[in-house]
Write the structure tokens for this entry.
Amino acid sequence: MKIRQAGRPKIINREAVINIALNQYWEHGIENVSLTNIANLLKISRPTIYNEFSNEDNLIAEVIQKYINISAEPSDLNYDNFKQYPNHLFTHFKSNIYDNNKYLINNYTHHGIKRPKKAIGCLLQKSILNKYNFKSKSFNIINKYNIKRQKRLIKYIKSAQTAEVFINDIDPIFYSKYLQALFCLIQTLKLQRIKIPTIKNIINEALNKILINKYIL
């Protein structure tokens, strides 16, 4: 009696899986996309994806890290140089409100990103809002980047205070969290289909609490 040999696992393009997953997660939300959805789009089986990534958390973690590398990090670098990019906070808010990369200065990597047609807002912000639904690897990547962004925002706020753009008696640590919360608020309002003028008015009100001179997005 012949024993049937198990077939060799199908070889897949790891980067292709990550790219498809990134677009699907961004467009529909990570929590709404299954490995079956991704496998069907690639015309492969779920076990093939498991063979490559070991588990779903590893795939989600790699997708979030890629989005950070191509989108969040190139944008957030400008917070380190207030002198050259004093308006970066405001252009960053505009980019999030309008879902348009043109507002981000000196960020050519970000400019080249092809946004999925039905994507709303920022994949990282969506992930931050849902981070407690993720397993450890994805959760840790989001938290680690949040800490990194907070440090940059603290530096930016201190520089803005020195330049007399922000009120001097605000606490940079507290207001770095305040600004991060505003980015999450924009994402939440966009997902609720709140109109852009209303979102702008809300963010303008929040920003003008800490600015010496009023600024209109």
